[in-house]
Amino acid sequence: MAKHPRMIQYLYKVQGLLKEFPTFTIQQVPRAENTHADALASLGSALDTQFRRSIPVEHLDRPSIEEMEPIDSMQIDEDPSWQDSIIDYLVNGNLPTDKSEARKVQQKASRYYMQGDKLIRRSYSGPHLTCIKYPQTLEVLCKIHDGECGNHSGGRSLAQKALNVDYFWPTMRHDSTEYVKRCDRCQRYKLVPNLPAEIYHPQNSLWPFMQWAIDLVGPMPTAPAKKEMMIVATDYLNK
């Protein structure tokens, strides 16, 4: 890491040279075993010392690094987001030309207000929520799901946690579910519930012995009198 502008340019130069090598290793050489490098480091203040005889000295009029050329910035238009129509109506009072679409925007905008340059959603059961859009939504899901305090929760739980930290966007439930589906660890190590592979069929029994179920179980280990089968009767009220 470098802080000085000139040292940053040297760092870029070294990083560019390292790309030309397939592999490299960094090894620390003790100062006592690296006399030439130590002498070069001292030449700035001792040009007329004994090192001039064993080490050639050359004065560089310009640094060995090339100055970075200025980069022309280009403005990139962002993709339309769900906030655009609401913000345009709240700030400028503009509505779509279609009457039905204009009515929808007005209904949606009643739940929001502007705070500086941020769109805020009103909440009547908790703190007001900061509205965000992609790619910030992905960053929030990543920090909550995979961050230092993340527990790789499921889709619905992940969406609720995003609400608990005062963020909102309309597709947060769907985005949370899709994010969990793309998580490699969740797909590898998630516990699979041991539920039957069919829909439950609830039975209503209003009083004891109203509904019975009888089943024949066997063959069982042979009992006295060579009995191997067992009849099981179940009362649905106490099942």
TrEMBL record:
<feature type="domain" description="Integrase zinc-binding">
    <location>
        <begin position="138"/>
        <end position="190"/>
    </location>
</feature>
<dbReference type="InterPro" id="IPR036397">
    <property type="entry name" value="RNaseH_sf"/>
</dbReference>
<dbReference type="Pfam" id="PF17921">
    <property type="entry name" value="Integrase_H2C2"/>
</dbReference>
<dbReference type="GO" id="GO:0003676">
    <property type="term" value="F:nucleic acid binding"/>
</dbReference>
<protein>
    <recommendedName>
        <fullName>Integrase zinc-binding domain-containing protein</fullName>
    </recommendedName>
</protein>
<dbReference type="InterPro" id="IPR041588">
    <property type="entry name" value="Integrase_H2C2"/>
</dbReference>
